[in-house]
Amino acid sequence: MFAKSLMNKLKAAWLPLFLLTFSVTAAAVPDIQHWTTARGGRVYFVATEGLPLVDVRVVFDAGSARDGEKFGLANLTSGMLDTGAGDWDADVIAQRLENVGALLGAGAGRDSAYITLRSLTHPDKLAVAMATARTVLAHPRFEAKDFEREKSRALLGIQQKGEDPGEIAEIAFMNALYGNHPYAHPADGLKETVEKLSRDDLVDFHKRTYTVKNGVVVIVGDVKRAEAESMAEQLLADLPEGEALAPLPEPVARQSPETLKTAYPSEQTHIYAGVSGMKVNDPDYFPLYVGNHTLGGSGLVSRIMEEVREKRGFAYSAYSHFVPMRVMGPFMVGLQTKNAQAQEALQVALKTVQDFIDNGPTEKELEAAKQNIVGGFVLRLDSNQKLTAEVANIGFLNRPLDYLNTFTQKVQAVTREDVKRAFRTRVDMTKLQTILVGGGTR
After folding, report:
1. Residues contacting 349, CB < 8 A, separation 6+
2. pTM for this structure?
3. Inter-residue contact 320 to 307 (CB < 8 Å)
4. At what angle do helices 2-28 and 363-377 cross, to 10 degrees?
5. CA distance 228 to 222
6. Which structural domains are found in the chain, ordered by start?
7. How do the pLDDT tens digits run along the chain, 442 residues long?
8. Residue 104 buriedness (CB in 10 A; 0-12 / 13-18 / 19+)
């Protein structure tokens, strides 16, 4: 009762807070400038004021979906960029950045790989930071000794994930959903594939995918347009021009439901269940996103949490979410629960999903979801780093430049019928892929 009473109070307080937040959000949406360099590099720039900082993100179509049969290649390539570049080893690179107070990072997922740079805008400090990033980006050494060390680390990480029932379940779920598609394998690869990787594999992958036309540059900070143009040119100067890679193939949706149970000596069973969901630029993006906020995406106040945790105490956390990707990403329901009640908890969660598909949200739930999403939108833009990530998504995923400006309006425009139609069309429970890992004995 206390939780419901508190929830009602929060909902009552949301409207005035929402109206205030919406006005702040509308004023805070940045102006995104976009241009293409002479060599075909796409650049996105947002000028900010107040702090003498600039954040840079260079994103390439070089994620694990581009591994081919060499699973783990993209991840290992990204991880080795700053282990040595040009005339510098890792220690020299770190010292150069430390001396000017700059931070450099790199990472890779299924769809993309990236490097990030944060620097002060003082000309002398920025010059050193940019020169370092330029060299790391275009001239990684991939030294043999560094390669063997990082490869060993990658294999150790894979081994550790193989001992985690949650990781085992996630890997099995993506494999069940995607089969032979490039999304099926884990981004860090498999033991048998990583063991076979060579230094030449990394060199070839970097040369093919880290190119001017296969990526985007995002610059957000207290610099002028002319400075941003110069920075972009400098970052891309040593990269081959290349070409954008061909689009990924569309996944072939599973046509029948399957359940895979894997015994593991754990006290709890980890559960994933789902189907193909949506793309990043999906026409049903907003109805699915807003609808799922009510179903399982809003934490303690979602329907799945209410049914699985609050009413029955089956799990500490239970959720649903769409994972929008460049081609069809998954819709998934996840939870972990005591082994003895795994089947019952799963059935409660899936029944909740089916009820939502059949009936959609109530008007009250829909309005609360909209207010919560719009009210929290400003937090997605409240730092240079967050804004840089958002703009990078716009550029890399070819979203319209006004995506952030129109986001709240598109959320507000979603109706109950939109949600019901989208869920009935896109979440086919007769094709559900279900993974359970746990229930074994020690």
Report:
1. 271, 273, 304, 307, 308, 318, 333, 335
2. 0.90
3. no
4. 50
5. 10
6. 33-236 (3.30.830.10), 250-437 (3.30.830.10)
7. 333 333 333 333 333 333 333 333 344 678 999 999 999 999 999 999 989 999 999 999 999 999 999 999 999 999 999 999 999 999 999 999 999 999 999 999 999 999 999 999 999 999 999 999 999 999 999 999 999 999 999 999 999 999 999 999 999 999 999 999 999 999 999 999 999 999 999 999 999 999 999 999 999 999 999 999 999 999 999 999 999 999 999 999 888 999 999 999 999 999 999 999 999 999 999 999 999 999 999 888 899 999 999 999 999 999 999 999 999 999 999 999 999 999 999 999 999 999 999 999 999 999 999 999 999 998 889 899 999 999 999 999 999 999 999 999 999 999 999 999 999 999 999 999 999 999 876 5
8. buried
Q: What tokens does 261 get?
A: 């149970």
Query: Which pair of structure tokens corresponds to residue 122?
Result: 């003082």
